[in-house]
């Protein structure tokens, strides 16, 4: 793609944007790289510090001891609530979009503050101290946000576990983080279905002797088993405490939370983030990347169980005094119009979601989108996986009525905030590319074989980052050796992201998939995302996942798993027509050897395809599929194995 056919920024977004054009971006970017010290100290002024830091960044990737804003003292919750009360006390901090369609609850900054203070006092009375870990296993209800902020107010470390996880997964995370207290609900509600959170919690902690307290929010009217002296009803207890509470002063480098990665590639890692740098970065990126302004209604669909929910439902937006939508339901309940209905009802101006949701919604056609008024929207974001250009265009043309700027944001649990992204109103976009680095971020592409940097444009390799940014994770909880080993040993002196990447002729970045998934077919290196995007252009394909398997002649053969819009038997013509799109879009060498038509793919609970499992199946290694605890529907694996045995 040449600059002439990039998607230009939309004029309505441009008028509002903080930056006036690409020159302004370039200039600010250069300043952030030449003088990171000055740049980030300036950015840190967006927070209220009890003691302003003397230094910005310290440490390096050789010793893996990077730190930010040392000497600075603050409280994260103070920054998300207290400091807004005078000006925004009556502004909605949260709009809770309940599971039941059309039901909303606005919660002002003053109300969130009072709820958080009561809970802070309650947790303190239960013996929670600065540095203690608190497990939060809740659905997307306001108490989830209160819990997170009450921990931060006390200087305690939260570990939020997504409400879709099983007892075993919950147990593993409680043990790993050594949580003495669990905050949960009697039941969760998701898409009209009840999730027995308290029962699951009971199961998870039955053999753990260090969990002393379980706080139970009643989301439904269901009665649940309560253990005397251990389990407390949240509503009853909270009333006993005053709606004001002091906040702890923490060091910039004190831990804020532990969060486990989604487990797409293996056993989840307990990624640890600290306070001052993380919040500075979450707030700063939220403001620039979503072009956030005071009157925006900001709707990020992520669950707070994932990092996107931490940084871009809670911390970034609230630090900026925004109105953030807390979405309890699922995109398909009661039908595929749900997101669009929320946008219409709340007049959302910024919308941020994941490609996996967009792919499934696009399957329901355009009519259901058009049924709802989306004229309030200005900016559309995506995160989590490479977005196929087909779906990007659908998002742009249909959802955004060709009026909204799209921000395809690349980042990771470990990065704390967005690293590669367009700036709305500023960066011309290309469907499928996360475009350019954010301020202070220096991406580097290296040759996977030897770690040599590949300079210039029109290159491809493993994506690394050259130096630290404030939102970066500091360690893996209790396992710094694994942190060093996973991210800093392959290419000494660099942070290795694990992702493959191409920098095109215009210097734009394209994430090609996980580097471990790169296909080396007859000596050609191919990213899984590239082949999948080509497959998605076939009119009958709704979803595709591609992996390599040992092939006698080519070295690696390509096995493509595809889901069709309407289920059909595999015929020779269909298979050929599928291979043809890839031949046409990429080249003959990239045509899949096997087209495996199926109905379901193994996914993590955040909706990402687990290619690691698909690779095993394609290689006939049906046993030893590794850690499958984060799979959302374990049954699909058996089904794929059966289908695979039948393929010749
Ligand atoms: P695990 O590390 O346990 O395997 P995970 O990597 O899926 O799990 P996350 O931190 O939630 O856990 O996801 C980060 C990854 O998601 C990135 O490394 C990248 O592969 C992918 N990703 C996120 N955003 C984008 C994007 N905009 N474009 C392409 N890929 C993306
Ligand atoms: Mg990862």
UniProtKB/TrEMBL annotation:
Keyword Lyase: no
Domain Acetyl-coenzyme A synthetase N-terminal residue range list: 25-80
This protein's record includes keyword Plastid: no
Cleavable signal peptide: none
Organism whose genome encodes this protein: Peredibacter starrii
Family statement: Belongs to the ATP-dependent AMP-binding enzyme family.
AMP-binding enzyme C-terminal domain mapped to chain residues: 530-608
Domain (AMP-dependent synthetase/ligase): residue spans on this chain: 82-468
Keywords: Acetylation, ATP-binding, Ligase, Nucleotide-binding
Protein name as catalogued: Acetate--CoA ligase
Any Pfam family hit: AMP-binding
Biological process (GO), any one: acetyl-CoA biosynthetic process from acetate
EC number: 6.2.1.1
Cited SUPFAM superfamilies: Acetyl-CoA synthetase-like
CDD domains for this protein: ACS
GO molecular function: acetate-CoA ligase activity; AMP binding; ATP binding
